[in-house]
């Protein structure tokens, strides 16, 4: 399963020494519980949202790897060494920043005039899309280009609400991938974190709740219980209540939705009665 969280994400909600204490300095324990928490969230969201687009891996950048559109990476480099001879274009980390060599030099202490500052070490970057993403509510005309499911498509006939996989209205399309481009290439990469931050926060809350529970289920801090399920028997607060509302259709999250396709049933509407279609009806 993909790992959405980064170790640094935990610092938003818990101090590092406290985290180390509840996982008993065992990183594998944290990773195992984190994956369980992620599965818990997926069980609520899978019927309405594109899980593989939400829970993605955040990998360390590798110039030899191939990346898809919007893929998120953490950029770092080797530490600068005063005993190494560098050539033009090499990247190093010095004092917490990534630098690129302007020109080759003999081995000596770091000289800022020989380097260009590129980014803070371990900054996040994601692959810039070649075209706007397909939108089911947008009217397209012949010649329009869109990005959908890692593929670029060209509109052949004016249409609206017709997926790019319908070859009568869209070209066959071509896969878009990126390789051999460093994150400082602003035509290919965008600096920033494109993960849904609400998902990140709720995943942290659920993970920390279960980490505390494994130590002593009867002594979970009230803060962790409140952020997990509202600290009440009906679970009408915290992360769980939000997930239930997403699953029922009472709430539409800012997440990539499963789009309707001909012949496929999807969950639609909300849980209200009357003439509004309920969440239990399939269309």
Write structural notes for this entry.
- The chain is an alpha+beta fold and 283 residues long.
- It has three domains: 7-58 and 196-248, no CATH class; 59-127, Seminal Fluid Protein  PDC-109 (Domain B) (Ribbon); 139-191, no CATH class.
- It is built from six helices and 14 strands.
Keywords:
283 residues, alpha+beta, Seminal Fluid Protein  PDC-109 (Domain B), 4-stranded mixed beta sheet, 24% helix, disordered C terminus
Q: Quick gist of this model?
A:
The protein has 283 residues and is of the alpha+beta class. It has helices at 16-22, 27-45, 51-54, 197-215, 222-229, 238-248, and strands at 59-60, 66-68, 72-75, 91-94, 97-101, 115-120, 123-127, 139-140, 145-148, 151-154, 159-160, 174-175, 177-179, 189-191. It has three domains: 7-58 and 196-248, no CATH class; 59-127, Seminal Fluid Protein  PDC-109 (Domain B), CATH 2.10.10; 139-191, no CATH class.
Distance N to C terminus: 29 Å
Low confidence ranges: 271-283
Helical residue percent band = 10-25%
Number of separate strands: 14
Mind telling me the C-alpha Rg?
23 Å
Write the layout of secondary structure elements.
Layout: H1 16-22, H2 27-45, H3 51-54, E1 59-60, E2 66-68, E3 72-75, E4 91-94, E5 97-101, E6 115-120, E7 123-127, E8 139-140, E9 145-148, E10 151-154, E11 159-160, E12 174-175, E13 177-179, E14 189-191, H4 197-215, H5 222-229, H6 238-248
Parallel strand pairs: 1-3
Antiparallel strand pairs: 2-13, 3-7, 4-5, 5-6, 7-14, 8-11, 9-10, 10-12
Helix pairs in contact: 2-4, 4-5, 5-6
């Amino acid at each position: 399963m993909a790992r959405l969280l980064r170790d640094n994400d935990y610092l938003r909600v818990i101090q590092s020494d406290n985290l180390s204490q509840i996982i008993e300095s065992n990183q594998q324990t944290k990773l195992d519980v984190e994956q369980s928490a992620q599965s818990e969230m997926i069980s609520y969201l899978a019927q309405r949202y594109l899980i593989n687009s939400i829970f993605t891996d955040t990998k360390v950048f590798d110039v030899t790897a191939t990346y898809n559109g919007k893929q998120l990476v953490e950029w770092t480099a080797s530490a600068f060494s005063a005993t190494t001879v560098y050539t033009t274009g090499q990247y190093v980390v010095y004092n917490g920043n990534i630098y690129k060599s302007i020109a080759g030099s003999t081995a000596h202490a770091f000289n800022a005039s020989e380097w260009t500052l590129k980014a803070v070490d371990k900054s996040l970057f994601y692959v810039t899309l070649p075209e706007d993403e397909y939108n089911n509510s947008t009217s397209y005309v012949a010649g329009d280009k869109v990005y959908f499911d890692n593929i670029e498509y060209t509109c052949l006939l004016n249409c609206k609400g017709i997926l790019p996989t319908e070859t009568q209205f869209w070209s066959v399309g071509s896969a878009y991938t990126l390789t051999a481009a460093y994150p400082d290439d602003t035509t290919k990469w965008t600096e920033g974190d494109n993960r849904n931050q609400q998902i990140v926060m709720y995943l942290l809350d659920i993970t920390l709740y279960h980490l505390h529970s494994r130590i002593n289920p009867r002594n979970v801090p009230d803060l962790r219980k409140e952020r997990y399920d509202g600290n009440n028997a009906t679970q009408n607060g915290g992360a769980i209540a939000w997930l239930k509302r997403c699953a029922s259709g009472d709430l539409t999250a800012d997440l990539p939705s499963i789009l309707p396709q001909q012949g496929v049933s999807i969950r639609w509407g909300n849980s209200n009665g009357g003439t509004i279609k309920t969440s239990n009806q399939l269309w």
